[in-house]
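Lab meeting prep.
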Amino acid sequence: MEKIREQFSSLQIARRSTLTEDPTYLLDIDISRGEGNRLVAVSHSNKSIGISDRETLQLLREYRSHHGLLSGVRFAHEHAAMLFSACSDGTVKCWDTRLASPEAARLFCGYPSNIFISFDVNSNDLIVCAGTEKVEDDVFMAFWDVRGGTSSAPSSKSPLGVYSESHNDDITKICFHPSQPNLVVSGSTDGLVNVFDINRDSEDDALTSTCNSGSSVSFVGWSGKDFRQVYCLTHDEGFSWWDLAQLDTEEPITLLQIPDAREAASLGKTKLDYLIGGLYHEKSDQLFILGGTSTGSIHLLDCGCDGLRPVGTLQGGHSATVRSFYWNVADDSLLTGGEDAQLLLWKLGAVEKVLGKKTSMKMASSVRQRVRVRQNSLKSKKK
């Protein structure tokens, strides 16, 4: 724990991007996998995707063929050049980042009414799953075989299948297990965090556990030894953490549940305005949460069964709310993106090689507006 504290406090800005002069939010960040693959992908609120060198942050190419709001970017795990993105226009696209072509290499389409607001790719790169916004009474988790997309026109085939009964409101987050390709966790504005085994024949059989956060879910993830735990953040800055290994025992499944992390995290004279996301650090066997302030400071919190503890704070980088991050445990670097249109690379003891900090380019969020928080519609089903 002390090593993590020391490392985080030693992070300094190594690079600061100048990807765009538009007042656009940086919504999601992912990096390419494998030795020698040095790309970072960033989704923007202006519907574009930027591909940059993750050491220099130099913009290499940009994709702009989406017709709706982006709900994330994910590099394939085993095929470094493949990048996936999902969109509110009901499509998931796969890009070949070696090419400058404005068109996606593969296209996966949902049903006509689908509005995708979350997605992920499983660990063997065979299955894509996307979650929809609720339309009338319908809300879906749709699945495709990655090998079945089409390169030029929308596919006439339906998805491999859908789950439609386990959530009753917007599915805001999808996250496959890091090593078991058949396991996926979903979070929704209905407050539920569901774990599925997609190898099972039916949705009822596939649903292996349901946990209730008590509020609208904004982020879900896996943690713990063999990733047998799941956790979530909520739109009102709550935090919940469960141990699935206790499902068949008499021990309680809930490790920690905090209605408002802003009040629970003791940060002294500083404050916590919001939560960004989480990361399980395998080397230290610790779950960490990142949060921040409206002026751009970033707080790292350690999660324990007794609560949240401050680890460190990064300042002097962003000038507005931080929306996304990627913590590269392999080299202890951190990438962050925010509402100030900046992409920052933080490294241990680095010296920044660009001059000047941009002023805030903050604008009215189109992303927050689309998430409908319905606390009175929470299911009573609990674990």
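Slide two material, second protein:
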Amino acid sequence: MSTSLEMRNIQKFYGPLQVVKDFNLQIQPGEFVTFLGPSGSGKSTALKMIAGFETPTSGDIFLGSRSIVELPAYERGIGMVFQNYALFPHMTVAENVAFPLTVRKSTRAQIESSVARALRLVKMEQYSGRYPNQLSGGQQQRIALARAIVFNPSILLMDEPLGALDRNLREHMKIEIMRIQKELNMTVVFVTHDQDEALTMSDRDRSYQRRPTRSGGR
């Protein structure tokens, strides 16, 4: 079930370097919002703060009416798709997709049913027994997406997920991501530096034009 997201007066410093300044944003349930901007503008840092991988220096983050800024990442119920896929090479496709459910100690029946559904959504059912090194880049991205949605997260975060794909695969995956988002009515926050991706895929975009005063921000 999708939920709303709100970021209130978020600031992030790494020592003297301010990467995110006075960031306020409200996202409605089921909305697809893109953080658009060049490398170093702070968009990926903002995404990591939502996910729980980074902590704001000040400000608050809400899922629905609940503040999550003090919650560890594994308690937030948020799905994440990374640019480099981050699949476990020693696990099969099915085992990779099942991992979030295994960590949550779901029953075997629940895992099998949810994994089958997620693989159907990304049209990868026939690859369940393969390993990541036996898949193309586009196929690996589909598996990363299946793993991110298998536990029905309240929000899906995507950090430049199409950046490693060639142009034809990017176009195809854009369509697939939009299809899945609409089918699941899922709230999505998508990070990209590609204006075409932002305009094509999102309900609205939040542009990042400001760069940090020193190198190092993303």
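Talking points for slide two:
The chain is about 35% helix and 25% strand.
The mean pLDDT is 89.
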